[in-house]
Fold each of these.
Amino acid sequence: MPVRSLIISLSFASVPHAGRSAGQGSRRGGLGKQLSRQSLLTRVSFCVQRTARVTLFVLLMLLAFPARLLGQTGGVLLPEAPSGFVGSSSAPSGFVGGTASDVSDGGIWSGILDGMNLNTSLTTTYNSNVAPNQGITISNTAKDDYIFTLGGNLNYLSQGSGFTFGGNYRGTYNQYLNHTDYSGYGQGAGLVANYEGGRFTVSASMGFDVDQGVNTNYASNFVEQTSWRSALTIRYLLSPKTSLQGDFRQNSTSVSTGTYSDTSSYSFGATALWKYSPLTEFGPGIRYTCTSGSTQNSLISIGPTMNLNYQLSTKVALKSGFGMNFSSYENGGSADPTFSASIGLNYVASQLWGMNFSLYRDTQADTYTTGSFSELTSFRLGYHRKVRRAIVNLGVGYTTRTYLDSGNALTVNRPDQNQLNIDTSIEMPVFSNTCIASIFCRYNEQTGTYGVSGGAWSSVQTGFKISRKF
């Protein structure tokens, strides 16, 4: 591949070492000052070339490969907007780390390539309500169904210090026993790259997902959604206590069924961070955001932000950002100011238990109503506890969607859309620690659903899952 060849040549191209040029010059009498000047120019040239190679490499990674940000051990990531899918057949997990799957390390794949893992799973789920919206056409009038899911996940993360990269691919196939029209594939793929050198830290990612199921973003209809996302963060250390950070985020979604609106958003941010202590940093910033849809005028926002990060080894990790958005529509109309927030918090009390919390709030283009926007607020609290060889997970989440006054008569006096999720699971290693078995149960309840009789529905999913790590 031409692009990969270019990346490899940029990553490993040899550059004359400045110290070697200076050493040769010291042996030549009478030219010390001239060679000293040449040595300085050589060092400057080396730094410029190295920075250019790294920057170009990251840009090529963004353009050439799909990527999804991988989890980071001992850290925390800012949450993203919820996908809207409910009733997933996979076992829920109330905690991002320390699960029972950690007891079984890689097998043949780790022997072939360090950092590579392959996971397979088989899940059986009973769903009490696979079709909450009465308006959709289904082949069977019964709402409940059994779902059989076969899944796999292949991921790789390089072992290194200055530069690391990785990729992953996941695939699932869902077979419905009665509603066979809903059976189908889901998949996602991605790549991530991180670089730390000198004063620079660069992280880049890009990814896509194709999933199907009941989605609250589309009036609780059954849809197949394709989403793309990319991110780039560059951080420069000005001094031991001060750093500058710039970031770019992009997200777009579309569905292959119905007449729903495709949506997209992108944002640019700049932040100045001050290290208050070895554990805490905070600072102000500014963010520009453009949110649009195929049936909406773009909503353009700009406003100040405040960021706070806290890291205590692997025990406590906090990452947060808050902002005020002053917005206007593409056609010249004005919009009321809105508040945005993003919080990710992990707390690992001991090897026996831990908790995590996430909060997301921002403005989105509505997929169901032409020309409308909504303000989405979503939070989730998770807890895990190790009991002998098993791990118990508990989780609760709540999402509310408030429709903004965008001059659309369809959204005037429209009630808020609220969704409650409660889930629990118990998992433990089986078959000589080669597999993980889990049972799970999830409850979903939603009110204010547009297009649903009575505006409310609920569902329960319960099932069994067994997975194997190779």
Note: The chain has four helices and 18 strands.
Amino acid sequence: MKILPKTRVLLAVGLLLTFANVWEGESPIQSDLPTLSGVSKDSFQRIELTQSGQKILFEKEQDVWFIKSPVEAKADQARIKSLLLNFRKGISMDVMVEKGNEEEYGLDASHSIVVELWSDSSEPSLSFTLGNDSARGSSFVRLSGDDAVYRARMGGRHRYEYSVSDWKNRLLFDFKESELQSLAIESPQVSYTLNWSGELWEIKPKPNWQLNQGQTRSMLARIGATRIGSTWKEPLERSDVQFQMSFRDGTEKKARIQLSDVALIEIGQERYRASVSIFKKLASDPSFFRDKQLYRFNPRSDLDTITYETEGQRMVFQQDLSNGFWRVLEPIGMDIDMKQVFFMVNSLASAQAISFVSEPLLTPRIQLSFQMLDGTQEQLDIGEEQNGMYLARRGTETFLISKELVQKIQQAFGKTF
């Protein structure tokens, strides 16, 4: 087949464009580029970061990282973890840029960061020099014993070049929930104490509601892990809330907190800025810790019958414990949608109040009664809709429940409002 001159020209242009796209202005990609071997973050025992002649030394003691030089302090565990996670998989050099000309890539002595990481051996497990960041998330790097400049994805220079003070522990209170014995909170609005009994968390003075253990543990863990935004030099103008923490090892910690757009926290002679939301919540209403779960039963082993009543109508479903299916006791001959009944029962077993309200009057539109196999009974009265939620009552407590929960109840009994 004869190829026309015009076709030859077009083919040549296409090949040139393809080659230019691969080249990208750098040396051709090589097939034998070096690789940094992957190492688990838990294997590292020592880190050295050297920049402009200053070396920061970290060592791990009982799974906790500490700065050993030029100061001795607990390190920011989150920042250390973020750095080490870069090496959990091997890092291949993307391309060899050139040899020499280090200053252009930030690899000269005044700009580079020498990174050395040890596991258990006397020699570093990983050793390289980090330069400037490049395009597409890569950085320029030179490996130990190699004078070539490479480009590779090292996690970004920002993970390595913190100052000594920024490498220090950034947790405001720095405790685990399991280490705390009590937390006393006092503000102009509230005064209460969360105390560990040895088995459960308790709140004093004791309210007329139950404490949600899971939510309490979660909140205390969040307080212990609150991060410092920045240091603060000026004295506090006022104390809006005070914390007194007692720990199970016998130590104590106190904090004065000023609330505004941010929280200003004074611990001893040190002052810090932090996010204000958690402190405002704790300083205003201890009912945040209230257990909002309405019922606690196993839908397969505890429940016998469910009765649904509205004005002029009554329906009763009973569970067949031999197979877990439901049947209609009243009215006789009614069909049942088994799937919808399962949805309703499982939703009720884990249902929570959205919020508790002071509502002395509630006219029930639906009355739902549960008969348990142990003979106990529960009742849920459901009233009017309010802003996409429904007013409900259980015993002496009035609260709001979700529209979705009411819809599941209605659908199980083949009804709608």
Note: Residues 5-23 form the longest helix (19 residues).
Amino acid sequence: MRNIINSIVLCACMAAASCVSTGDSLLHFVGKIPYKQKVYYTGFSDAQKGVTIGYAGAVYYIMDGQKWNKAENHSMCRFGLEMLPDGTCYSCGNGGQVMRSVDNGGTWQRVMSFGKSQPHHARFLSFIDKDRGMIASDKELAYTENGGQSWIALTAPGEKGIVCLSLCEKTDRSTIGFCIDGAGTMWKTCDFGKNWTRGKCPVTEGSIKASDFSPQSAMRFQPSGKGIFMGYVKQKDADKYKPVISTTNDFGETWKRGNLPADLSETNLNVFPTIYISFDGKYATLLKFPNPVSVYRIDAGA
């Protein structure tokens, strides 16, 4: 295939006319991108650039939409990923190993370790810029201000672990961070995790599914206050989870439930795709291994 991304963008135009959604969907199908590598998590920063991470430290990246390229990476299994607009990327996973790339995922260097191996490995990453960001496992949390050269340990808020994490710089250059715990409580911080206060959770009707290996829920906020949440919520009186999407315009003071395409609205899922939301909040990447990577354009929360 001469240009995978050009082909899937063309496919999106065809799919738009035929895709049935519940009301006006906030997600619009861009395309499915095949791969041969064993992938645990993946993210696209725009319609062309993406990274897959996975088994035994295998990392692949795509830059021009033509093909997946094998990255230079030497680490244990990868489960968490962050991609920044300047080409800086971070990954985390087994053995506490944290890796950093400055060339859109082409080559990776090890920085200071954080976390343990499965099942309590690091899997959540959220950065404001190339130097400042947070990392978390299901139980532990830390912050860096020097690109992962060192980590400042923080006390994770709430109960029953961490299921989602997001950090943002406001238009006035102050920062705000969010964490959802396993009890479904939203927490927010304005001092990089030193202190936390209760916020308003984007879902209230049930608990959010915890991530098994890689993130199965995601939040992303923009400096203006707009934000988006995607995840799976347990249904009351049933052992089922329903995919949900919610948006905010005021840093989570109020949330509005959005609609998903019909193919993402299943309630009785056997396998829950991982979710990555791009730094600018414009693209969502879903992965259900070994199916192709699915990329969606987001029309809200950015």
Note: Residues 69 and 198 are 43 Å apart (CA to CA).
